């Protein structure tokens, strides 16, 4: 055994080094954002479709205060409690000093400007499908929002989930640019897919997850337990959601079901966001939902 010890130590060192290399952050290539300039007017639509204010405004903010992205909302999960950071244009406490490349790496790759992995409570797995021009437009609009000096609070995450390097392994398993719905789609259905799967990141809440927190893509939008442990998030596939396309579009923009129940919980923010967009966007999502594979 003493003779084997040096070999075992060398093997352990090699395995550790390989694991460290494999879990390193993988930023976008520099050319991904080279030469891009954003349009703030177009970026506002991206902002509401992506639901940025829904998570990053202060708790209970309303009206104009929803545009102040000071953070502070708490999101409880089985892995810990994640607290939305300040993403206002404040140069010290927010993201006002970020370049477009740094912004793109955070949004699409889950990498901070310091080179650390970000937790996937920030839905970069969905935003990875965003068009780069939309991302540039989004940043241009966010740069026009009010800066706020509120410091971001640390997430309340215990061992082993506080080891951020391990998120590199999570990304290897679950960070993909593949679509949940594939096959032949009309232009309207493709637009709906882009809105639902990339910008509005519907799958992040409505698709069940495995023990590691990865989406069970074979049960796309089939509903899931609420991460807070209270109740469930509904099934949006045709196996359960039998509303007409007109009913779905109306719900997304008014918050009323065909039975005249009203929207509640975090979904109320989604309705507020879609109400700010052209009606054709909600209609596109409704058309897309009819193409989702039925799943009980």
TrEMBL record:
<dbReference type="GO" id="GO:0009055">
    <property type="term" value="F:electron transfer activity"/>
</dbReference>
<keyword id="KW-0349">Heme</keyword>
<keyword id="KW-0408">Iron</keyword>
<dbReference type="GO" id="GO:0046872">
    <property type="term" value="F:metal ion binding"/>
</dbReference>
<dbReference type="InterPro" id="IPR036909">
    <property type="entry name" value="Cyt_c-like_dom_sf"/>
</dbReference>
<protein>
    <submittedName>
        <fullName>Cytochrome c, mono-and diheme variants</fullName>
    </submittedName>
</protein>
<dbReference type="Pfam" id="PF00034">
    <property type="entry name" value="Cytochrom_C"/>
</dbReference>
<dbReference type="InterPro" id="IPR009056">
    <property type="entry name" value="Cyt_c-like_dom"/>
</dbReference>
<dbReference type="GO" id="GO:0020037">
    <property type="term" value="F:heme binding"/>
</dbReference>
<feature type="domain" description="Cytochrome c">
    <location>
        <begin position="38"/>
        <end position="146"/>
    </location>
</feature>
<dbReference type="InterPro" id="IPR051459">
    <property type="entry name" value="Cytochrome_c-type_DH"/>
</dbReference>
<keyword id="KW-0479">Metal-binding</keyword>
<feature type="domain" description="Cytochrome c">
    <location>
        <begin position="187"/>
        <end position="293"/>
    </location>
</feature>
């Amino acid at each position: 055994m003493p003779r084997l010890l040096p070999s075992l130590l060398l093997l352990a060192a090699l395995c550790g080094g390989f694991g460290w290399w494999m879990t390193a952050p993988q930023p976008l290539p520099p050319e991904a954002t080279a030469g891009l300039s954003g349009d703030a007017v177009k970026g506002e639509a991206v902002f509401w479709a992506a639901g940025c204010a829904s998570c990053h405004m202060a708790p209970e903010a309303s009206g104009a205060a929803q545009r102040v992205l000071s953070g502070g909302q708490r999101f409880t999960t089985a892995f810990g409690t994640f607290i939305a950071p300040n993403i206002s244009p404040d140069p010290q406490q927010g993201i006002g000093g970020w370049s477009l490349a740094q912004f793109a790496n955070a949004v699409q790759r889950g990498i901070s400007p310091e080179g650390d992995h970000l937790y996937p409570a920030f839905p970069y797995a969905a935003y990875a499908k965003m068009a780069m021009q939309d991302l540039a437009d989004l940043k241009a609009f966010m740069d026009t929002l009010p800066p706020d000096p509120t410091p971001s609070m640390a997430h309340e995450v215990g061992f082993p989930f506080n080891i951020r390097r391990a998120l590199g392994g999570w990304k290897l398993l679950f960070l993909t640019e593949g679509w949940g719905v594939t096959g032949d789609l009309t232009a309207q259905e493709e637009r709906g897919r882009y809105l639902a799967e990339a910008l509005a990141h519907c799958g992040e809440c409505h698709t069940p997850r495995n023990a590691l927190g990865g989406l069970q893509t074979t049960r796309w939008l089939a509903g899931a337990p609420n991460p807070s442990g209270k109740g469930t998030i509904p099934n949006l596939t045709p196996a359960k959601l039998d509303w007409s396309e007109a009913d779905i579009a109306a719900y997304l923009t008014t918050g009323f079901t065909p039975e005249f129940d009203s929207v509640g919980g975090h979904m109320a923010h989604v309705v507020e966001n879609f109400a700010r967009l052209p009606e054709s966007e909600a209609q596109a999502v409704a058309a897309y939902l009819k193409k989702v594979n039925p799943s009980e």
